[in-house]
Amino acid sequence: MEKFPSVVSDIMASPAVTVDAEVNVRDAALLMTGKEIGSVIVVERGAPVGIVTKRDIIRRLVALCLDPCETTVKDIMSKPLITIGKDVGILEAMRKMREHSITQLVVMDGDVLEGVVSERDVTRGVSIASLGAFSSLLRRRE
């Protein structure tokens, strides 16, 4: 029987894409574009310290007419990181995103960066799980 997604580790993107805190925003944006992702995790000495999302770039760089080649990701990152454990349920992840008005959560296992889960990942996971439950109900009726 196929396993339907129920916890964050079932739906997260892993490994997380990271950039050093001193990288300029232009290079981070090129990385995000090249990998077709909406965020990068900012690290200092290997430890995650923040996140830069498309929204951060628009609000904290473009809207302020800052130079993306002269501005570092550390200058515009969102912090502190809002994290979630990899074994937490998908619906809890959705609740946490809504509570903090964010669209991405950093997935941690203790001090280890495991991945990133987005609002889109959660929506897809809930949809698949719902369809799976619905399918099993239909099979029982037959």
List the helices and strands and how they pair.
Blueprint: H1 8-11, E1 18-20, H2 25-35, E2 39-44, E3 47-53, H3 54-62, H4 73-76, E4 83-85, H5 90-100, E5 104-109, E6 112-118, H6 119-141
Parallel strand pairs: 1-2, 4-5
Antiparallel strand pairs: 2-3, 5-6
Helix pairs in contact: 5-6
Structure description:
The protein is an alpha/beta fold and 142 residues long. It has one domain: CBS-domain (Roll). The chain is built from six helices and six strands. Strands 1-2-3 form a three-stranded mixed sheet. A three-stranded mixed sheet has the order 4-5-6. Helix 5 runs antiparallel to helix 6. The two termini are 18 Å apart.
The CATH topology is CBS-domain
**Tally of domains:** 1
Major sheet summary line: 3 strands, mixed
CATH architecture label: Roll
CATH superfamily: CBS-domain
SS element count, helices: 6
What kind of assembly state do the chains in view correspond to?
Answer: single chain
Strand order of the largest sheet: 1-2-3
* Residue share in β-strands: 15-25%
CATH class: Alpha Beta
The helix/strand class is alpha/beta
Calculate the mean pLDDT score and round it.
91
Low-confidence stretches: none
Rounded to the nearest angstrom, the radius of gyration is 17 Å
Distance between the termini: 18 Å
| Helix fraction bin | 40-55%
SSE series: HEHEEHHEHEEH
Quick recap of the structure?
It is built from 6 helices and 6 strands. By secondary structure, the chain is an alpha/beta fold. It has one domain (8-141): CBS-domain (Roll).
Keywords:
44% helix; 3-stranded mixed sheet; CBS-domain; 6 helices; alpha/beta; 23% strand; 6 strands
